[in-house]
Amino acid sequence: MRLITHNMLSCNIKGVTNGYPLGIEASRLETKESELNPEFLRKIFPKLEWKALRDAAHSLGLNDLPEHVEPSMLEDADFLKNFHHALLEVHLEEGALICPETGRRFPVTKGVPNMLLNEDEV
Amino acid sequence: MKLKQLESYLGDVVQFANPKVELEQYPTGPHIASRMLFMAESSYGDIDGKVVADLGCGCGTLGIAALLLDAAQVVGVDVDGDALLLAHENCNELEVEMELIQASLTHLPWRGPIVDTVVMNPPFGTRCKGADMEFLAAALKVAGTAVYSLHKTSTRAHIKRVAVRDFGATSAEVLCELRYNLPASYKFHKQREVDIAVDLWRFTTS
């Protein structure tokens, strides 16, 4: 699971109102290089929750993303490189996603988060 | 990539060995899958460079087809862990990277407008009534631009009405009618195989 996917997942246990963003507990990360596509990054940027991405990256030890992004930075090669790396190249292979409200853990196994809810959670 | 080439690649996708009847795990064959995705790209430009979600991805055929047609990212969602393992193996085999999530579409844990296009082959709702409409509701929530989906031709009027009136689709159009050839996958199938008429739909959400 990459951080682009983390950015669109939330906890939807019945009654939870602040299930986003999910915390990350990482026991194994993998980095897989992929081709940087500046056009795609510029297009996806306005659709992301930047703070969620930045905080998630931070919790994985990736400290190169700034708190605020100025439009001009989307033309900057270094920024795009760090953005691309955090969003698309780092994979959470083993660990868990944590609901910020209830602390419920959603396990991540072989890169796949299990978001299935128990009967008493729906 | 040419249509024939896409169809040939998809022929390498391994299908379910033990399909689960309650989930209506019928395979999406390479013939239908390649035509569906090829049309989405060549007629509407909804795949190349886009973020695509394959809901109820099963062994991953439609998502893999999207990646072969240069989707920027593909997310496959399925309730069944065994299906996701198979999807993962298929992706390795075809050397593509798909994000996989185990989740129920009834309680989809989703935020935001990141996905452009949804492609899916939902259950027809014959074993579990209403499953087809649940998929459609979820898809129209997730997709920023368009949803491509297969539904039985016999449900056409109902699908159109509900998609637009209840699920917020801005348009609903049948692109073509296909014959869905179902080999006898389950014990309750009496005939060796059966042809079902299905519609390929394109719904828009914006």
TrEMBL record, chain A:
Superkingdom to which the source organism belongs: Eukaryota
PANTHER family: MULTIFUNCTIONAL METHYLTRANSFERASE SUBUNIT TRM112-LIKE PROTEIN (PTHR12773:SF0), UPF0315 PROTEIN-RELATED (PTHR12773)
The protein's name in its UniProt record: Multifunctional methyltransferase subunit TRM112-like protein
Family: Belongs to the TRM112 family.
Signal peptide: none
InterPro entries tied to this protein: Trm112, Trm112-like
Family annotation (Pfam families): Trm112p
Automatic annotation (TrEMBL), chain B:
CDD domains linked: AdoMet_MTases
Top-level taxonomic group: Eukaryota
Domain Methyltransferase small span(s) in chain numbering: 48-134
InterPro entries named in the record: DNA_methylase_N6_adenine_CS, rRNA_MeTrfase/Polyamine_Synth, SAM-dependent_MTases_sf, Small_mtfrase_dom
PANTHER family noted in UniProt: RRNA N6-ADENOSINE-METHYLTRANSFERASE METTL5
Family (UniProt): Belongs to the methyltransferase superfamily. PrmA family.
Protein name as catalogued: Methyltransferase-like protein 5
Organism: Sphagnum jensenii
